[in-house]
Amino acid sequence: MRRLAVALVSLLLVASCGGDDDEPDSGGGLALVEDAFVVDLEPLGDSRVSGTADFRAVEGETQVTFNLVGPAGTAVQATLPVHLHRGTCADLQPGVAYQLAPVGEGGSRTTLEPTLGELQTDAFAITVHAAGAGGEHVACGNLSEARAGTGEG
After folding, report:
1. What is the Cα gyration radius of the chain?
2. What is the CB neighbour count within 10 angstroms for residue 53?
3. What percentage of the chain's residues is helix, strand, coil (to nearest 5)?
4. What is the pTM of this model?
């Protein structure tokens, strides 16, 4: 009887050591978030363009809202193309996975068909391009490094 009690206690201890679903997994990926997450967009090169992309579940789709700033925190005045690519900022895959609305005067909003969960099951990176044809990347953020919640308030 004592062995059975020790075995049950051991089993309970092992079961309680499972991961917390609200924390990122050890591989650096985002734990699945049900309704919203934020991706920080970091400047590339000397662009000084940065900001956030808020991903929010809206009626079975995903709404992405951008807020970009330029030097000294000023709103970006140019219209900048934005895309989701497969891969990471360090290793972008060729081709655009999802076209997003260009960011003008610092912000934009796009609705995508994939759900938040679908976007979190593969590696994606958001790229912001310089204005004009063939614009180089000026900012990037990895969905795998997102944080739960929204960038608002």
Report:
1. 20
2. 27
3. 15, 40, 40
4. 0.73
Structure tokens at 69: 């700033």
For residue 57, what are its two tokens? 């579940």
Distances, alpha carbon 43 to alpha carbons 25, 29, 95, 129, in Å: 26, 21, 21, 11
Closest to 60 in 3D by CA, of 118, 99, 121, 105? 118
Q: How far apart are CA 50 and CA 139, in angstroms?
A: 6
Q: Which helix (H) or strand (E) holds 142?
A: strand 137-142
Query: Please, how many CA atoms are within 13 Å of residue 36, restricted to the half-sphere of its CB?
Result: 11
| Residue 86 three-state SS | strand
Q: pLDDT tens digit string along 101-139?
A: 998 876 889 999 998 888 888 899 999 999 876 679 999
Cβ-count burial 131-144 (b if 16+ within 10 Å, e if not):
eeeeeebbbbbbbb
Residues 6+ apart with CB under 8 A from 151: 38, 52, 53, 54, 67
CB 80 within 8 A of CB 129: yes
Would you list the DSSP string of 99-129? Answer: EEEEEBTTEEEEEESS-HHHHTSS-EEEEEE
